TrEMBL record:
Keywords assigned: Metal-binding, Zinc, Zinc-finger
Domain annotation RING-type: ranges: 126-167
Name of the protein: RING-type domain-containing protein
Domain of life, per lineage: Eukaryota
Gene Ontology MF term list: zinc ion binding
Database matches in SUPFAM superfamilies: RING/U-box
Species of origin: Penicillium egyptiacum
Length: 200
């Protein structure tokens, strides 16, 4: 008798464990990329006077665990519930995308650090469109990413909330380019935006 070519489907708990394992691996890989970018940012800022520094922010993602899933009917983590599994799959896919973007960002910084003629601030660019922070105003988000005004415009929803294009979560802004950086800086500077406030 030939073995069946159709794989036996996993039971819901094993499937939940498999996807949860993916999220664990991707979270560890993502944290590695975040740390790598943070070290590069530290390195390229260390010789700068304080007023020119755009302080890097680091937020590592909490690593999920393989704790026993809750199979109570009402539990939101019940793997027998279809929406729980859909959410878990989406989470794994987003984490994977963030790992890839993290690699691209760190590589872009490394490339800018060795570029000739040298760039003054190799880490200071828009993480979405890679516009240089010396040419355009770049803001630092609460999630630790950098984004230019143009990309903010494309990332706001109808309520004026900006969703980070790297983390896929709504975010606010903690700082903007030190003014000495922006060459064609307008005389008057808009206040730093808080979450949900995008004034152009
Ligand atoms: Zn941009
Ligand atoms: Zn972000």
């Amino acid at each position: 008798m030939s073995p069946s070519t159709i794989p036996t489907p996993l039971d819901p708990i094993s499937e939940w464990r498999a996807w949860q394992t993916f999220t664990i691996i991707y979270t560890i890989l993502l944290n590695r990329q975040i740390r790598r970018r943070w070290l590069l940012e530290q390195k390229s800022m260390q010789d700068r006077p304080l007023r020119e520094r755009f302080r890097p922010v680091i937020f590592l993602e909490p690593v999920p665990t393989l704790q026993k899933p809750n199979t109570n009917k009402e539990a939101t983590s019940n793997p027998f519930n279809k929406s729980t599994m859909d959410k878990l799959r989406t989470k794994a896919a987003l984490l994977r995308a963030r790992v890839e973007k993290g690699k691209e960002l760190a590589s872009e910084i490394e490339r800018r650090m060795v570029q000739y003629p040298p760039i003054r601030f190799p880490t200071h660019f828009c993480h979405t469109c890679v516009s240089d922070g010396e040419r355009v105003e770049v803001l630092l988000t609460t999630c630790g990413h950098r984004v230019c005004r143009t990309c903010i415009q494309y990332g706001v929803d109808e309520d004026g909330v900006y969703e980070c294009s790297i983390c896929f979560v709504p975010t606010g802004f903690v700082a903007r380019s030190p003014l000495v950086l922006v060459k064609d800086c307008p005389g008057e500077v808009a206040p730093i935006l808080r979450k949900g406030e995008v004034a152009m």
